[in-house]
Amino acid sequence: MILSQNENPIFKPVLDHVNGTFNNVICSGASTLIIHKDSIVLEQYIGKQSGEREARAVQADTQFHVASVRKSYIGFAVSYAMFYGYITNIDDLVLTYLPELGESTWQDTTIRHLLTHTHGLKEQGNRTTREFSPGSNWSYKQIGVEVLTQIVKRTTNKSVAEIIHENVFIPLGFTESNWYSKKHKKLVDVMLRYEGDEDWRTSDSTDGDKMNMYVSTRELAYWGYFHLKRGKVNGKQIVPREIIDMATSLQSPSTLHNDLPQNGFLWFVKDSPAKKTEIGHQVPKGSFQILGFTNVTLLVIPEEDIVAVRMFNSFGSPEGYDYLSDVRSFGDSVMKCVKNESKVSL
Can you give the pTM of this predicted structure? Predict the structure, then answer.
């Protein structure tokens, strides 16, 4: 995928925002890229791929660890399975597909609950326990995502990675997005908050089910652009638009309180006002976003025909740093630039 490069200085405040975050979190490298009206209007690379003195500079082919941003790829795989009938209905019970999980704990939990973080389950040691009844509250827990990858594999006989490669990466020529079992020179080092951080885990799996995905800045922006264009790129419909529409539209249970975050297929979506949303207040309805623990963010704003990406190699945030406030203000900064551009064009 190739887009025209048309740098626009009106988007410099976004670069300033990314630089500000870079200076406030524990990281050695960062980048940002914005696609607006089919052109790359901002693309900047900052710092180095690790904290070592002779480290490689962050550049266009540098691949950042995207942490939970990988869930947008899992959401696509689930939507693919739905569209082609491998999964019958989003409100099917999880136990319909994975009966071995155990009826008592997983009873009444549906695929919708897993996709929208409303399943109410958590892991305690080797046990799965329940915090709240399905659909009654919202809690961001890894267990739901892991079960979704199992359902995809069980129903399609393909891993998440296989579905993504066959339907997106290969048709679009992506070579800088993948799940890696071994390190290579283009992958950043993830900067931990402290030595031995127990939240940081590595994996040898390349099935797309674990948190070992690395993506270049440009290809993450192209992934967002692919969703912005509803699967149609360079005049060709790469995947049915319904797959994208399901993944990026509101799917949260109607029983959920309005102040809680709202989700599509793992994407955060902007619908009615919600106090606990991660999306900026100035970002319009219909937008969708995914955020990783490395502070990587992908924001898509269909109303303004814009995709905004920021990348860092930080893992978590320093004590006292409000990362949700920071990511909201990132989106609001993008919107302010768009509004300023509109004023100038008048």
Answer: 0.96
